[in-house]
Amino acid sequence: MKLQESRLGKEHRNTLTAVENLATLYKELGRYGEAERLYRYVLNTYERAYGKDDLDIAEAANKLAMLYRAQGRYAEAERLYLRAIKIKKSGVFKDLPPYEIFGNLALLYQDQGRDHEAEQFYRRAIDEQERNFDKDDPVAVWLASDPDRLTRMSNLANFLTEQGRFAESERLFGHALEAQERILGKDHPDTLVTVNNLAMLYWEQHRLTEAGPLLQRALKGHERVVGKDHPTTLTFLCNLAVLYLDQDRIAEAEPLARRALEAGEKTLGKDHPDTLLGANTLAGVYRLQGRRADAEALQKRVVAGLERKLGADHPDAISSTANLAKLYFAQSDWDRATQFWQRSTSAVVKRTLRGARDPRSTGARRSEAEKWSLDFSRLVKATYRLGPEGSVMDPARIDQAFQAAQWALSSEAAKSVAQMAARGAKGIQNSPC
């Protein structure tokens, strides 16, 4: 990079591309502060040297937005994505929609629980690519097998899994996976991500005997192709460990969870979200082994780290907070169980209501509310256990607990909470670490 600066100058496009690549490396390593500094430098330099509507600014804004999304800085990310789309639409290629940015914006909206908008942009990222060309056009033939388009299709399928639209999801996964295996190969990293996500679909449907072999394939393939310490490999490790926990195969789950945590700490750092998800998995192992002190220490670290990095209403932060409440409930610590379930259920309500503001999305948050339905009933139980233990029952706390329960049972976004609770819903995330 220094060599390019001296030969080409600090404002040359090739120099800025090199700086951007370094920023991306820092982002992958979880060094978000250094990554942001470099991304902002690139964006500001493009604006100063080439004008605010230069096409390269759209890509710089897109990459900075991806960093902000990873940090849970959703409003800042959205502004940058929308700016990038505006620049792309007014530039030389204005007749070719910015499919990649559409797909990234869809992921952002999915994170926020804005499901109507997420699906809209997922569909635009895939369908408009087909509509722009006649099916016999050579460009259309190429686009049909575009690896990035197949990744966006897999992401849409993953979104539909979260929505509980399993038939649509499985159909899309099947199409994407067949094309990826044929075009990229069975062991390509993108193919293996789709394999993992298809396994998560089977998991949500309680098809564990089908999910297991797929998770093992994804893990072994990724280890072989990109290495045992790659961040995505660590996610696959966690997924397989949690599947084993779901099957009461605790002895097999522990070494996977421990390895995911240790590799994450070494490769990404102790506070990286992926590392913390590994810690969340190992804490679950400890809880099931009855090692409550070890589980509590690790789970508290996870909750604090994820809330700091991603925000309290990020799905991973909600899950870890609920896990801590579950641990306290098992210890008959009703006060702290109530405290942490109040935090998790409040975050669920916040996400769900945010996603339901668009009247067209009525009912769209049903699957997420269902996933967390047990936490609403557990909150009520923990609150009422305070009395028999001799503690003074706080009327405001009881009122809050039952407002949450009432919301869960009456909201259009959570009609089947009671049925789900009766069935003992697992509430597993697509990244369940």
General description of the model:
This protein is mostly helical and 433 residues long. The chain is globular. Mean pLDDT is 80; it is low at 356-367, 388-393 and 405-432. The longest helix has 22 residues, at 334-355. Helices cover 77% and strands 0% of the residues.
Structural class: mainly alpha
Extract low-pLDDT stretches.
356-367, 388-393, 405-432
Calculate the terminal CA-CA distance, rounded to whole Å.
37 Å
Give the helix level as a range of percent: over 70%
The value of Rg in angstroms is 23 Å
Task: Give the integer mean of the pLDDT values.
Answer: 80
Specify the overall morphology.
globular
Number of helices: 22
H/E series: HHHHHHHHHHHHHHHHHHHHHH
The major sheet is characterized as: none
- The fraction of residues assigned to DSSP E strands is under 5%
Total number of strands:
0
List the helices and strands and how they pair.
Layout: H1 2-8, H2 13-28, H3 32-50, H4 55-70, H5 74-90, H6 99-112, H7 115-131, H8 138-144, H9 147-163, H10 166-183, H11 189-204, H12 208-226, H13 231-246, H14 250-267, H15 273-288, H16 292-310, H17 315-330, H18 334-355, H19 366-371, H20 373-385, H21 395-410, H22 417-423
Helix pairs in contact: 2-3, 3-4, 4-5, 5-6, 6-7, 6-9, 7-9, 9-10, 9-11, 10-11, 11-12, 11-13, 12-13, 13-14, 13-15, 14-15, 15-16, 15-17, 16-17, 17-18, 18-20, 18-21, 20-21
